[in-house]
Amino acid sequence: MPFPEFDSKGMEYRFLGNSGTLVSVIAYGSWDTVGGQVKDSSIIEPCLQEAWKCGINFFDTSESYAEGQAEIEIGHALKKFGWPRKDYVLSTKVFEGGHGPNDIGLHRKKIIESVNASLKRLQLDYADIVYAHRPDYLTAMLETVRAFSDLVAQGRIHYWGTSEWSAFEIGEALSVARENHLVAPIVEQPQYSIISRQRVEGEYAPLFYKYKYGATVWYVLLSSLADRSYD
User: Where is the NADP-dependent oxidoreductase domain (predicted)?
Assistant: First the structure.
């Protein structure tokens, strides 16, 4: 285990998809909190420290959360704490960030420039996971897969994944990667709760079984029945 000192806390770790990387079963997310509803950034640091003390080694953010401010605050805290980079897993997401004509989608220009910008905000040399935050119906799948694959080869990211993609779209990405000898996605980040179960338990089931595709779910506690559309 990466955190033997946390054994007494009872934190459980699981493999990220079909990889050998271990992540805590509870992650520290930053949507609608870091840089968003929580305006006082001084509150974020003790929250992160408490999560760390409990054995959480998985921290999640996105270029779109509070228009990049979440990444800035997470990055500032991580640098201040000085935690060993090898001991935590950091994920972020790209798809929509900025207001220009090329600031949305999963084309090569968008993916590479967004990852570079995210790493600058996070003050990190690499991200462990970058999710394609939504499917892009206008860009060829090969272009998307190749861009992520190149970032892995460059050491800018370790893994890439999908978020709110259909099983068909994920299957296409896996096939394109296999046929072109590229790096395939390994994990999906879907909404999943007691009243939103069909996609995870039904649609994705073949992916979990056949490819050992991973899942890092959001909205497990379903914060609001009236607002369930965005993560």
Answer: 26-226
Q: Is residue 63 part of a domain?
A: yes
For residue 230, being part of any structural domain is answered with: no
In this predicted model, what pLDDT tens digit does every residue of 171-227 receive, in sequence order?
Answer: 999 999 999 999 999 999 999 988 889 999 999 999 999 999 999 998 777 654 444
pTM: 0.90
Choice among 28, 65, 213, 219 that is catalytic: 65
C-alpha to C-alpha distance for 161 and 93, rounded to whole angstroms: 9
Active site annotation includes 137? no
Burial of 32 (0-12, 13-18, 19+ CB in 10 A): middle
Q: β-strands 13-15, 127-132: how paired?
A: unpaired
228 within some domain: no
* Beta carbons within 8 Å of 224's beta carbon, 6+ residues apart: none
Q: Structurally, how many domains does the chain consist of?
A: 1
User: Which residues form the domain of 16?
Assistant: 4-215
